[in-house]
Structures are given as C-alpha cells and as structure tokens.
C-alpha cells in the first residue's frame, strides 16, 4: 500500500489557534494579525504560544477548533477488506475506485498468484506472524508454505474465473462478485485534524488489524509534519488512550 498527501490546509495550527482565540476574546480575530490574536497567550515565540494554546485545548477536551484544518490523502493498493473498515468512519469523505468502470480484464492471473492485485496478508508467508486477535500462534515453515500455496492458488483461480465471466459477456459489476475481499483498491480520503486523531485512536491501536494500523501510522507520520504541535501532543499524551476524542 502507498499513501500520499494530496492536499492539506496551509498553516493548520494558525487556523486552530485563531478559531480557539475567537471563543475567548472580545476582539474580532478577522481584524487582527495572528501575532495580535496570540498576544496574551503565554510563550516567548509564536511556536511556544501555539504549544501553550494547543496543549490547553487538547488537555481540556476543547476539540472543536481541530475540525477546521483538513487533509486529503491518496491511498494506492489497499485491500477491499481494509476499505470496509476505514469507510465505517462517518466524518471522513471518500472516493473509491469503481469495480464497475475499472475491469481487471488485462491482469495476468499468474501475476496475481505472485502477489499482484490482491493484498497478501503476512500470516500467509511469515511463520512467526501473530496478529493481536489471531487465535493461532506461530507455525513451522512447512505449514506456512502450505498456507501460501493455498492462498496464491485461490486468488489466481478467482481472477481466472472473473476473466472467464467477462469473456462470457458478464458486466464487470457482476463478474466482480467472484473476486477476493483482498482485491486492491485505490482510495482518496479527506478528514479534519480532529477526525484524524479519532481514527488514529481506533485504528493505530494494537487490536486493530495490521493493514489499517499500518495505514494509520503512515497518515500519522504525515500529520506530524502537517500539524506538528498538535500531533506531538497527541503522540505524547493521548495516543493509545482509546476514543479520548469521541468515546
Ligand atoms: C478493533 C475494531 C474492531 C471492530 N469490529 C467490528 C465488527 O466486528 N463489526 C462492526 O460492525 N464494526 C466493527 N468495528 C467498527 C466500529 O464499531 C465503528 O463502527 C468504527 O470504528 C467507526 O468508529 P466510530 O464508531 O467511532 O464512528 P465514526 O464514524 O468515526 O464517528 C466518530 C464519532 O462520532 C460520534 N458519532 C458518529 N455517528 C454517531 C451516531 N450515529 N450516534 C452517536 N454518535 C455518533 C461517535 O462519538 C463516534 O465515535 C470495529 C472497530 C475496531 C477499531
């Protein structure tokens, strides 16, 4: 899976602070410079003042100002299983690659058997892999080789059968019913900084599945550059305290 930041609000933390200062100031933030807006906030630099105010907002549960900045990500090659988990989040906006208008008619089924087009879970190839909620433990090499063989045969066969159905004139939107849930999909998603923290609360957690956890950690890496004060505070004080932002 590949994750790219497509677009994000410029200076998101200036926006967060301006929105928050609006709540407590008699002056109109629209008529002020940012330095004037932050004048009475403790700190000897703009960065220090942002740290003071953002830390105060997050520690007191004043989350509204974090809904103003927005970021858009493009994700390539997520499984449809992972997409089903991700799209449960109702405050995230999505565009999902269509299986009605995009057909996998020119994919080589043998390449699918080699790992293209369908995401391979680590438990199919790594004998030492143990997912958090997985019932089974580690296995020997022979067992994992069998797992991989069954997995690869199965995904290859389903793509062969999908393409046979297309050859028989079945529309892609119906032929897709035989494709595996691990079939890759490209997604564009947008969310605000508050929702990003909430999704991270749930999906970067140890009991989330490996694929959505990996995705969320990558999104958090971008967030740390985009909104540094906020996500530094989040990492230090809030991460792994499940659903702090929206129980
Ligand atoms: C480890 C894990 C396992 C899961 N397993 C399953 C499963 O087996 N089956 C399954 O169906 N789902 C499962 N889920 C999905 C989970 O139940 C949620 O639907 C999903 O994570 C979306 O998160 P959210 O509920 O916080 O809602 P979001 O859509 O992200 O909304 C954010 C917050 O807004 C508020 N909110 C939004 N809509 C409403 C509303 N209508 N009413 C009240 N408050 C609202 C809530 O405070 C919510 O937390 C799982 C999630 C995780 C993390």
TrEMBL record:
Gene3D superfamilies: 3.30.1360.170. The keyword Flavoprotein applies. Pfam families: Thy1 (PF02511). It catalyses: dUMP + (6R)-5,10-methylene-5,6,7,8-tetrahydrofolate + NADPH + H(+) = dTMP + (6S)-5,6,7,8-tetrahydrofolate + NADP(+). Binds 4 FAD per tetramer. Each FAD binding site is formed by three monomers. Transmembrane segments: none annotated. DUMP binds at residues 85-88, 98-100, 176, 203. GO terms for molecular function: flavin adenine dinucleotide binding; NADPH binding; thymidylate synthase (FAD) activity; thymidylate synthase activity. This is Flavin-dependent thymidylate synthase.
């Amino acid at each position: 899976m590949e994750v790219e930041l497509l677009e994000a609000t410029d200076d998101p933390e200036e926006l967060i602070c301006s929105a928050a200062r609006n709540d407590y100031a008699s002056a109109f933030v629209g008529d002020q410079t940012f330095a004037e807006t932050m004048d009475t906030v403790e700190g000897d630099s703009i960065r220090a003042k942002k740290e003071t105010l953002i830390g105060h907002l997050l520690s007191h549960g004043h989350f509204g100002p974090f809904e103003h900045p927005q970021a858009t990500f493009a994700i390539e090659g997520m499984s449809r299983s992972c997409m089903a988990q991700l799209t449960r989040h109702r405050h995230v906006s999505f565009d999902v690659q269509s299986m009605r208008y995009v057909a996998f008619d020119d994919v080589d089924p043998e390449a699918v058997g080699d790992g293209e087009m369908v995401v391979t879970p680590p438990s199919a190839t790594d004998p030492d892999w143990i997912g958090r909620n997985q019932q089974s433990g580690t296995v020997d090499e022979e067992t994992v080789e069998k797992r991989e063989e069954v997995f690869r045969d199965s995904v290859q066969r389903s793509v062969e059968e999908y393409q046979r159905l297309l050859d028989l004139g079945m529309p892609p939107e119906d032929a897709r019913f035989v494709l595996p849930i691990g079939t890759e999909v490209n997604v564009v998603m947008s969310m605000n900084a508050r929702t990003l923290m909430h999704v991270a609360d749930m999906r970067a957690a140890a009991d989330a599945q490996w694929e959505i956890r990996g995705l969320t950690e990558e999104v958090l890496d971008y967030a740390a550059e985009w909104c540094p004060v906020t996500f530094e505070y989040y990492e230090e004080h809030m991460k792994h305290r499940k659903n702090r932002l929206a129980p």
